[in-house]
Amino acid sequence: MNSTHEETIFMSDASLPNYDDFDFLLQTHKLTCSASEVHGILCGVICGGMSEHSREWLSVIRDFCLDGALLPDEVAAAMTDLYKTSFSQFKDGQISFQLFLPEDDVALSERAETLIEWLNGFLSAVGIQKIKLQDADSEIREAFQDLVSISSMDTQLEENEENFQSFEEIVEYIRITSVLCFGEFGNALPEDLPKKPTLH
Predict the structure, then answer these.
(1) pLDDT tens digits for range 143-189
(2) Which contacts of 151-155 are long-range, i.e. CB under 8 A and separated by 24 or more positions?
(3) Distances (CA, A) of 115 to 7, 100, 127, 170
(4) pTM assigned to the model
(5) 8 Å CB contact between 97 and 180
(6) CA dist., res. 125 & res. 155, Å (int)
């Protein structure tokens, strides 16, 4: 069973791995962060200006998920792939970038919890990158305030069409705001930056 999980977590090009397999790997090695939180942290440091080939994110993950302890080699390798894939998706822009969340067949309340884990990881990681948010345009500043508000939303959602639609709209808003953040603060060559999307 373990070998099946270990063989399927690695990804190709700009495709995210299977969520359950990646989360299983983290649990196996007793990391306190979920797969969504790890992805949020990685996206946060990328959007905060960390370069594509940097390895500094490893210390951020260690501090958040292992109280400063070293990452097991297998986990570090999987996270390196995830970092590279996430950076590639950001460079590809609005269409390619996706949040790393469980599949739609998972209970809505559980998906909402993992979304908040992603968002808290993202906001914390962006914060330690010391971006100059005050210098950004008003749209991005307002969007960040929205993310902070969303991070405290109630995750106990009933399974109905209205809640499902609202949840998908929130996911999309966070996704687009993340791409905007990368375009504003990300460490990429000008030709690699995505075209600026619009928030609705």
Answers:
(1) 989 999 999 998 998 889 999 999 999 999 999 999 989 988 887 54
(2) 151/116, 151/119, 151/120, 151/123, 153/112, 153/116, 155/109, 155/112, 155/113, 155/115, 155/116
(3) 26, 9, 18, 9
(4) 0.86
(5) no
(6) 22
